[in-house]
Amino acid sequence: MPVFEGDRLELEVGLTTRGASRGPASVAGLIDGTQVALGAGLVPREGWRQVQVLDHVRRGPLGATGWSIGTGDPLGFFRGARPCADTEVTLVLPRFTSLASRRESRELEASVAAPRAGSGNELFGIREYSPGDSLRRIHWRSSARHGELVVREYEPPGMQTLAILLDPAPATREVADQIARIAASEAWDCISQGGRVLVWAPGLEPAQTTRDVWSQLEWLARYPDGTVGPTDLRLSGAELVVITGGADPDLLEGADRAWVVGDAEVTADVPLVRVGLQWPL
Predict the structure, then answer these.
(1) Gap between the Cα atoms of 40 and 30, Å rounded
(2) Is the residue at 118 inside a domain?
(3) Tens place of pLDDT for every residue, the chain, 281 residues?
(4) Does residue 132 share a domain with residue 82?
(5) Peptide bond into 83 cis (omega under 30)
(6) Is residue 117 in a domain?
(7) For residue 24, is the peptide bond before it cis, meaning its omega torsion is within 30 degrees of 0?
């Protein structure tokens, strides 16, 4: 069962014994950086179990580190400790939601440009603007002539490919969490409409280009950490959305649109939405 940030997680910690019942025994270590220490006066033949509850888990690998098993005798004459190997208990995924309507909001800060030459599908007409239509499809000359907003109407689209480029060095964990949530939401919107998604950050191995949202969520759960990869990667023919906490012009170069987390002064000429750290947006 997948675990998402903010969930309440119940972990079962246990001890087993070979042969007869033994004790006392204890286990201690860190779970996601939180110290846990549990003990039992007697470990029966069928084993001993206790549930440890973690509230509001954070995005990322949830690890059990520095664990050891302590043993002794009932009279306290003998004591021993055996270390346990560190392990990843689970991977906590970023939360996500549909942002289709949010992208069209009034917080769009830059002037909206027409689609690039040769991109998209064949134009066959214009129609009256409807709530939810992309602002990038507005035909401004015709809107001025008609006295109301009208948008370009295209032939039904083929398979969309969305390239999501992330800030390689977010300033804080909170900014990284927000970037991951927005990226997961963008991926969800695209994949739910039958498209494909590539998620990537410079210097990291990209996620597989796929229509499987779970592989994207797993990659985003580990962001900004991951396997070292290329420093430059552009997917030909894909819509490029950049999600960043900074204002690096190289990162924003060629973007069709962008999300900016925070107050960085962006000078790049790209349509953008500015957000804070609150979720949902």
Answers:
(1) 18
(2) no
(3) 899 999 999 988 888 888 788 878 989 999 888 899 988 888 888 888 989 898 999 999 999 999 999 988 766 667 788 899 999 999 999 999 999 876 555 344 433 333 333 334 444 456 788 887 878 778 887 788 778 888 876 544 556 789 999 999 999 999 999 999 999 999 999 999 888 899 999 999 998 777 889 999 999 999 999 889 888 876 667 899 999 999 999 999 989 999 999 999 999 889 999 999 999 98
(4) no
(5) no
(6) no
(7) yes
**pTM (predicted TM-score):** 0.75
- Residue 118: exposure state from Cβ atoms within 10 A (0-12, 13-18, ≥19): exposed
Q: Contact, 6 vs 56, CB < 8 A?
A: yes
The CATH number for 73's domain is: 2.60.40.10
Domain of 65 in residue numbering reads as 3-93
Residues 260, 177 share a domain: yes
